[in-house]
Amino acid sequence: MFSLLYTQAAALFAQANSACTNSFLGIPTWFKYLKTVPSNQCTPELRGLNDIWLIGLAVVEILTRVAVLVAIAFIVYAGIKYSNSRANAEKVNSAKFTLQDAFVGLAISIVATAAVSFIAERLTQG
Prior knowledge:
two-stranded antiparallel sheet, 3 helices, elongated
């Protein structure tokens, strides 16, 4: 019963292509670190309770990659804000602080993504 429900859920959330390696804007699939069924690379295979940690790490990696994209959007926003400041000192300072905060957020997000990926790769090797 559980395996039938799991198979249907996995088929629902899996990507449609045969290799399931494509990603949208660098965002991986939720089952990135799980082993897949040999006959179908799009169907993840749960082998134990420890696989929940791998799913959790994949979700955290997805969230950190989204944070990178949001930080890049804020960098663009700060650039537009700076361009529209028209030498108004208050608006220029506001744009500079926005840009500074966006770069700090970008750096933190990149380091977090690398750390999560490193940890997950080590867990899948063991």
